[in-house]
Fold this sequence. Notes:
Strand content: 5-15%
Strand order of the largest sheet: 2-1-3-14-6
Number of helices: 21
Number of strands: 17
Largest sheet: 5 strands, mixed
Amino acid sequence: MKKIAVASLSLAVLTLLTVGCSTTNKDTPTSSNPSVSAQSSTKPSDSGTGRPAEFKKIKMVALGDESPRMKDFMTDVNKKLKDELNTELTVQYMPWSAYGSGQQIELMLAAGQDFDFTFTDPTWLNQLVQKKEAYDLTELADKYMPDLKKNLTPQHFEEFTINNKLYGIPMGYAPLSANAYSISIRQDLLEEVNMSEIKSMDDLYTFATLVKAKHPDMYATPNTVSFVQPYLRGLSDKNYTWDQGLKYFLTDENASEGKLVSFIDSPEFKTQSDFFNKLYTNGLLAKDILTNKAAAQDLFASGKYMWMQGRSGGNNIVEVLPNLQKNVPNAKLKDFLFAPDKPKIKNAYSSTAVMVPAYSKNAERVAMVLNLMQKNLDNFDFFAYGIKDKDYKLVNDKVERINKDELFYQWALFNVNFPRYETTVPDSFITINKTWDNGAIPSKAFGFTPNMEPVKVERAKLDSVYDERIKPILVGVISYDKGIEVAKKEMAAAGWDKYYSELQKQFSAYRAGKK
């Protein structure tokens, strides 16, 4: 997802040929859990995708802030939903910090609080399934989401399938190979300092120092989900990938069946730490880079940063540039992918997905609503941009916004099967975006969602060490030489050897099952 590890939102996520937990995962029981029992007692009473006879109200938990126009727009939304699906939708907004494992939305799920759907990602969804907190949507996908299935691919659904059951509804279809491995540079600043290209990490550092000299209040990059992917291709000659769910490992994509490599023990970890430490000690990173919890996109849109983690095919030009230009009207973005000759690895098919609480009585209606959103281009335009000639107008088949407020997330709904670009998006970007996935290679780790039950205690301890010891080294707040010895000792005490052995065993079994 966009602002998550969301995306998260990853945005953020991930690319899978077949999905599900590793071969060691256990099927989720359906009889001993009260919320799952509630699920089985609420079979859909309506058939097909026509207008149901029964009126229902459903509630969505969204992330971010409700825009002024969105409040009014919900009247139009609910008129459409009432006319077509006999449904009324309420949206409850929560801060982005409420998303993810152990955060507020998960606490709401555990408490059985009243809502019917919210965003998720493969890693978090797997954890929710293990806790029996996610609804089994397998039958509903076939029955109530024919348009969504037609306008996505089978892999989109496989990405959120665990033990052959669908627990997440994918949304949108954007090109996602090498997702988050590019860097979105402020092109206007690049031109201002008489540079045209960023080909190496040295170029990136030179760019930062030149801009800082002209704009002392600016910083290199804001807080982001990983700090890893954008730089990995520039730090190593190996064909490694990394994702948030397997954050302790790099996947060696050149190994015949793939191989998990300890990230903290790798030369790439030290090289990245040294690069960021140089930025930090020279005042090119904000002092609160670790503690500022605002979403990276929001920080970048303030106009105070030089670059941010990119999205595949230059999607930040679509997703981030409009908000940046509200604060810096002449701002331009340009994406750079280090080592462009390396293959682009596909780690995800969906930028985000939706989950339904196991106790929801309205899962079939949620499926209908999400299907409606992805039914065709007219519906995409409505939910993403609003009312034609009131919120937007079409100019040469592009959207020119009249209303600048965010409605439903355009980045989540975007679909290459009915692409719609804004007038601010250059034709050169559109060409790149449409062909970005050509020749992409699926990751060896695509579909591997490890079962953490055998090492859940060790993972919890390791995550604590990661936040306290490892991440400050990774982002340069503490130098590698000063911090790594203590970090590794604490990792060992947290059970690293057991965790490493278990994950390698599961990954080998998963890859063996792919033959």
